[in-house]
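## retry 2 of 3
previous attempt timed out at serialization; input unchanged, resubmitting
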Amino acid sequence: MADHKQEQANKRTQSSRVSVIEKTELSNQWATLEQVKFNYKRSDGTWQMQQREIYHRGHGAAVLLHNVSLGLIVLTRQFRFPAWDSGDDGFLLEVPAGIIESDNPEETVQLETQEETGFVIGKPQFLFRAYATPGSVTEQLHFFSAAYEPNNRRGEGGGLAEEGEDIEVLEVDIAQALAWIGEGKIIDAKTIILIQYAHMNIF
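## retry succeeded, writing output
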């Protein structure tokens, strides 16, 4: 899902230091892979032709569910083929997250939280946004936090089977989660960012 800013970026062809020569669509399946050739004005004033492959997959939103009085956070565990294919276990510990729907990050994390974990949350607190891999991917992640109570759980979660999701839900002590980062048991970037944020600002 391309929002207004993404559409403007796709239309952009030149600025004082960048002039687009050509854009070629290489693939348009689940997301769009594009090859771009452009002239770039270097800091010494000379122009250089460069070429990049850009992946447009829409923007995402992630949320850390926390219960300060119990010292707990909610994580999911699900299989990620690219991680497995790269040599890791493949079953990654993550925070609830998803691709932004209807240009509404807040509603997205509320829906993803219920689908993945069974917990129903109120209005999440927006924390910040950040590019995931700015050298090749246009995706930005919107980071949120939300308090939860054990009795807020309305279902088992687990995700949507028709989308290939098979998600395990865990309530984890924040100290244990921090230890798992150090031990290499949590290796998902968005999850590490939110756990570290929670350690510094919430717990």
